[in-house]
Design brief:
This protein has 434 residues and is α/β, with parallel strands linked by helices. It has one domain: nicotinate phosphoribosyltransferase (Alpha-Beta Barrel). It is built from 17 helices and 13 strands. A six-stranded parallel β-sheet has the order 7-6-11-10-9-8. α14 links the parallel β9 and β10. α4 runs antiparallel to α5, α8 runs parallel beside α9 and α11 packs across α12. It starts with a helix and ends in a 12-residue tail after the last helix.
Length: 434
């Protein structure tokens, strides 16, 4: 990929360079979840919100809301292209053909629209709120995060000369290659690129993916970015996220139904998907309580993604749980994905190798690691912790407890109720950096 990043960044106001160029420019799991929502919850209304957990960075002082709205209106004007629909219909994902139903793809091409939104400023932060049918709101998550993240990047780049931009990208390329060299020394490692939502820019993410493909060969399992998978003939990676159990919980009519909702969502999911897509994400309301109360059939799922818990602890807990349930952990998959960098990936691979099929979902510190690269030594290009979470479902508050209490979301009184119902203990984990 021969991109002059310095020249391109210097001229970033080109209409030629919208931040989101295709509705496929999203994580693959959003499409799987969209089909699930379209099939099971087509009339449910929700709200969600993009917020910045790194409150020390006052985004409203760097990003002009009018420019952000211009980019969001561009995204709202996009439609799925016929060639993209054909690819989704005919491609094999996770070894399965026709994973997307013809009726869903017809709806996606003909009727899919993004919901209304509102951009406001509050305490120095930009807040983007989405409201509408769940099928119209859910896809905003990754688009919204990528837009805000790259708007922050463009603001920082606009203060640099073209020569300084040359230096910046030379240092970033060197840093990226040094990471690749460390990984090349361990060919058994398996990595998926997960960096869309908090990327430095689309162009840099594409460059990173191409470098990984060249440097790592079969160690690169694929990319979560559906557009890059489509464009570069890579495996599209991803399964599901916290949004589903959060919504199911919010719809529960009483405490008993609330507790059961974390397993009910798995029952519904496996009616649509199977095999490698049966990856559970048990930390929405606490991993330990989830595993303790899980029906036996949950142990037949293909694997687990650990997000907010220390992955060494979460992996050991999962292996022990599988063994207690009479399942062979070596046949299962463990995916770590929270704030990983190359050192973490290599340590985790070494720790779990031969015990379980370990793979890493490498995100922000792959596609947005410009720490120490700024030619003036500034921190303006360092990544921040942007999130987009469900706020309400049919007017009821949506809650996430997490294994790290710093990541809990929802009204305080509802968080306390959920902790009582699920029996989750508030554990303050590592500081949230990305």
């Amino acid at each position: 990929m021969n991109v002059n990043f310095a020249e391109r960044a210097h001229n970033h106001n080109w209409k030629l360079d919208p931040i989101v160029r295709s509705l496929l420019d999203t994580d693959f799991y959003k499409l799987l979840m969209l089909q699930f929502i379209w099939k099971n919850f087509p009339k449910i209304h929700v709200t969600s919100e993009v917020t910045n957990r790194t409150v020390s960075v006052r985004l409203s002082e760097h990003i002009a809301t009018a420019m952000l709205v211009d980019q969001m209106e561009h995204v709202r004007g996009l439609r799925f292209r016929r060639s993209e629909i054909i690819w989704l219909a005919g491609n094999t994902f996770y070894g399965t053909r026709s994973i997307f139903e013809p009726a869903f793809l017809e709806w996606l091409e003909r009727d899919f629209r993004l919901s209304d939104y509102k951009v406001t400023e509050h305490n120095g932060q930009i807040v983007v709120r989405f409201e509408g049918l769940w099928t119209e709101v859910t896809m905003w998550e990754v688009y919204g995060l990528a837009l805000v993240s790259e708007m922050k990047t463009r603001a920082a780049l606009s203060t640099l000369s073209e020569l300084e931009l040359d230096v910046l990208y030379a240092q970033a390329k060197t840093k990226l290659w040094e990471k690749m060299e460390r990984l090349r020394a361990v060919p058994e490692v398996r990595i998926s690129e997960f960096g869309t939502r908090r990327r430095h820019s689309f162009l840099w993410q594409e460059y990173v993916v191409e470098v990984m493909r060249m440097a790592l060969g079969p160690s690169l399992s694929g990319t979560s970015n559906t557009f890059l998978a489509y464009k570069h003939d890579l495996e599209a990676m991803g399964t599901n996220a916290h949004e589903l159990p959060m919504a199911m919980a919010a719809l529960a009519r009483d405490d008993e139904e609330l507790h059961a909702s974390q397993y009910r969502v798995l029952e519904l999911w496996q009616k649509s998907y199977g095999g490698e897509l049966l990856i559970m994400l048990p930390d929405t309301f606490g991993t330990t309580q989830f595993l303790a109360g899980a029906p036996d059939w949950v142990a037949d799922w293909t694997g687990q993604r650990c997000d907010s818990k220390d992955p060494f602890v979460a992996g050991d807990e999962y292996v022990a749980w599988l063994t207690e349930r009479g399942r062979d952990a070596k046949k299962k998959r463990l995916i770590a994905s929270d704030g990983l960098d190359v050192g973490d990936i290599l340590r985790l691979h070494d720790y779990f190798h031969g015990r379980i099929r370990f793979s890493a979902g490498w995100g922000t510190l792959l596609t947005n690691d410009f720490r120490g690269c700024h030619p003036r030594g500034e921190t303006a290009l360092e990544p921040i912790s942007l999130v987009c979470k469900l706020m309400t479902v049919e007017g009821r508050p949506a809650v996430k407890l997490s294994d790290n209490a710093r990541k809990s979301t929802g009204p305080a009184e509802e968080i306390e109720r959920y902790r009582r119902v699920f029996g989750s203990v508030a554990v303050e984990g590592a500081l949230v950096t990305v």
